[in-house]
Design a protein that fits this description.
CATH class of the largest domain: Alpha Beta
Shape: globular
Largest sheet: 8 strands, mixed
Order of helices and strands: EEEEEHEEHHEHHHEEEHHHHHEHHHEEH
Oligomer: single chain
Radius of gyration: 21 Å
Helix content: 25-40%
Strand content: 15-25%
Strand order of the largest sheet: 5-4-3-2-1-6-8-7
Length: 413
């Protein structure tokens, strides 16, 4: 009895196969570059791994390849698709319709279709993943787990924009927040690491990757988050600008003659670390170049950390206190330089970082075929009133846990 988790994107299908207890990963894989040159599938199972270049025309081909790899008699993880007893799907945007993970029904799919205009780049491939999954595994529960649902506990004063309320009531324009599945998992794990009830903690979670979310989590509930309606707000990201004066749009269009499409490309694809450094959107490259004397990369590093630090201070004020700052995702788990810079000057909040602990911390990822192995560390001194932590995120496991819980309400697994 196994749980399959599917993350269907526009050009990739990622998947993991868990045991019923969601303690062991039997397989993890990816079908990448759908419809592009150089497409491939790779998969890891206990004791085996492979990568094979293969033509993948689209999502249907990708799902067929996924099932073929899982069933492979030598390098697979199951003998029959009947061993999969529930399927969990990542769904990026559930608007304010889906407040929690939910069993997928025709009515749920119809509502997800209605949310497409709010996430035109993400929801369509998520829906394709659901359709393909239902075809391949038709007789088991399918569960949708939403990135936005964790942030639905934000109060109106945090999620509304200062424009006429009709734009919210009639067009659903408001702050939604993203990376909620990651934040929810990390918040729970941080409470375990601190040996304190989640309900007692005021945390700022920094999901720092190519996409960045800073979330204020009070008592396990999100009360504010950095990304708003679109996905380029908040902290500067790999190629996204982060917070920027909205008036700049008018200036670029009216004075520089840019089109709306060109401005959108600037904000989403040409800004952030890439735009400032002129070198890369990869923080590892930015840090290396900064240490080698590249002034633009040093500036990009400092700008990034400054914005993270500003959000930490802002959210500490919003919560009326701070017990912990938690770093996660690619940059948060693997860049001691960013963690150190992001916490500098926050001693007035009781937050300090131990250099030795910080340099030694890093995400351990997932152990294939063994119990979940997580690289979690406290990187603040023992006497620090406010703790700094590194917690390896695991969105797939969070999706699997929700899938098991919801499936059990409707079917005995």
């Amino acid at each position: 009895m196994k749980i399959l988790v599917i993350n269907s994107g526009s050009s990739t299908i990622k998947y993991q196969l868990f045991d019923e207890a969601v303690e062991t990963v039997h397989a993890k894989g990816i079908v990448a570059r759908l419809g592009e040159a150089g497409s491939y599938i790779s998969q890891e199972t206990p004791g085996t791994s492979f990568r094979r270049n293969v033509v993948v025309h689209g999502h249907h081909d990708a799902f067929e390849l996924m099932v073929e790899a899982l069933l492979d008699p030598v390098r697979g993880a199951i003998r029959s698709t009947s061993e999969v007893t529930a399927v969990g799907h990542r769904a990026v945007h559930g608007a304010d319709v889906f407040l929690e993970s939910t069993l997928i029904t025709p009515e749920v799919i119809a509502k997800l279709e209605e949310c497409v205009p709010l996430a035109p780049l993400h929801n369509p491939p998520n829906l394709i993943g659901i359709y393909e999954g239902l075809k391949l595994f038709p007789n088991v529960p399918h569960v949708a787990v939403f990135d936005t649902s964790f942030h639905q506990t934000m109060p109106p004063k945090a999620y509304l924009y200062a424009i006429p309320l009709e734009y919210y009531t009639e067009h659903k324009i408001r702050k939604y927040g993203f990376h909620g599945t990651s934040c929810r998992y990390v918040a729970r794990r941080a409470a375990q690491l601190l040996v304190r009830p989640l309900e007692s903690l005021k945390m700022v979670i920094g999901h720092l990757g190519n996409g960045v979310t800073i979330a204020a989590v009070d008592g396990g509930k999100s009360i504010d988050t950095s990304i708003g309606f679109a996905t380029f707000g908040g902290v500067m990201m790999g190629t996204r600008t982060g917070d920027i004066d909205p008036g700049l749009i008018f200036y670029l269009v009216r004075n520089l003659g840019m089109t709306v499409d060109e401005v959108e490309k600037l904000y989403y694809r040409q800004g952030g670390l890439l735009g400032v450094s002129g070198v890369s959107n990869d923080m590892r490259v930015i840090v290396e170049e900064a240490q080698a004397g590249n002034d633009r990369c040093q500036l990009a590093l400092e700008m990034f950390a400054y914005r993270v630090r500003s959000y930490i201070g802002s959210y500490a004020a919003a919560m009326g206190g701070l017990d912990a700052v938690v770093f996660t995702a690619g940059i948060g788990e693997n860049s001691p330089e960013v963690r150190k810079l992001s916490c500098e000057g926050l001693g007035f909040l009781g937050l300090t970082v131990d250099d030795a602990l910080n340099k030694g911390a890093g995400g351990a990822g997932i152990a294939i075929g063994d119990r979940i192995a997580i690289g979690d560390y406290v990187i603040s001194p023992p006497d620090s009133p406010t703790k700094a932590l590194v917690v390896a995120t695991n969105e797939e496991r969070m999706i699997a846990l929700d899938t098991v819980e919801i499936a059990r309400r409707h079917l005995t697994i």
